[in-house]
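Good morning N.,

You mentioned wanting to compare the apo and holo forms, so I went ahead and generated the holo version with oxa(dethia)-CoA. This is what I fed in:
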Amino acid sequence: MSGIKIRGTGRCVPQHIVTNDDMAKIVETNDEWITTRTGIRHRHHCTGGENHTYLCTQAAKSALEKAGIRPEDIGACIVATLTADELVPAAACTLQRELGLPEDTLCFDLNAACTGFLFGLHTMECLLAASPRKYGLVLGAEVLSRILNWQDRGTCILFGDGAGAAVVEWRQEWPSIGAVLGTRGDNELLRVAGVETGEHSYIQMDGTKVFKFAVETVPHCMDQVLSKAGMTAADVDFFVFHQANARIIDLAVRKYHIPPEKYYKNIEEYGNTSAASIPLVLSELQDLGKIHSGSRVLVVGFGGGLTWGGALIEFA
Ligand code: UT7
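and this is what came out, ligand included:
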């Protein structure tokens, strides 16, 4: 035994909403195609003074408040992201300054693309076991609007900005979240160029191949999590899926006969927010009262890297 549970969640999305009709003014597309192929109607993009630091700070403050935990109680802070305002300092170090986290709080960023929040939770569970302070802050945050190719209708219509945060607590007597995580080095399916290449850093994706990867990976992760926990899908209180495409979620829902009251989609409002996607869902669900103390939530993610993973998360 020994593991983490979520104490409180928070989120922040930019105010500016970009509709499918707005996208149709930029690339050759239309509301009908985007809605039926992806489930997306809106995405939120940073404007004015909004940036990655702002989104992270607001989301983290809200999670701390809901958890009733002070910054000085935090032992580690991980920001899962691929779009921090600066490469150095890490977004987690900037957040440390904004929140007034102690200097011995271990703060760092983690890049596992859309699976980043799950990688962050697993890493936090390991870290807090060795930390003198047993509360951790895990964020998934992205400003993907800064790395879109506005000439590529296959990608620019998909992505949005946002941040989600969770305050977690570690206890010896709690079960582990039982994360199952995987990676496969591949830069053919999904790629963002880095400093070495001299190319513009924007998302390049073979959507059809990623779609195929996703529909195989989601059930694979779910089966692994359930088998590790000795549970069946019927024992799970709620299912949280990475919001990449509503059709990917619908396929999993059909395969596992998940009733409508046990899963949730917010892709219609935010599009794909990569690492922020899962914590945004968790935060909305907590506010809606759909998940609460004792709820067993099966969370599944997949994305660039390639990366994938699942875990069984409980709320304290
Ligand atoms: O979170 C990271 C992981 N990312 C994902 O999970 C994304 C997974 N992939 C997908 O969600 C889907 O593959 C997309 C939404 C990206 C694309 O949907 P699709 O059903 O796979 O479409 P497609 O790429 O096969 O394209 C079908 C047609 C093509 O036209 P032709 O060749 O049949 O004439 C495309 O050019 O749709 C066209 N198309 C568009 N049409 C209008 C592609 N994008 C658009 C668009 N508007 N935005």
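The radius of gyration is 18 Å.

Happy to go through it together on a call whenever suits you.

Best,
F.
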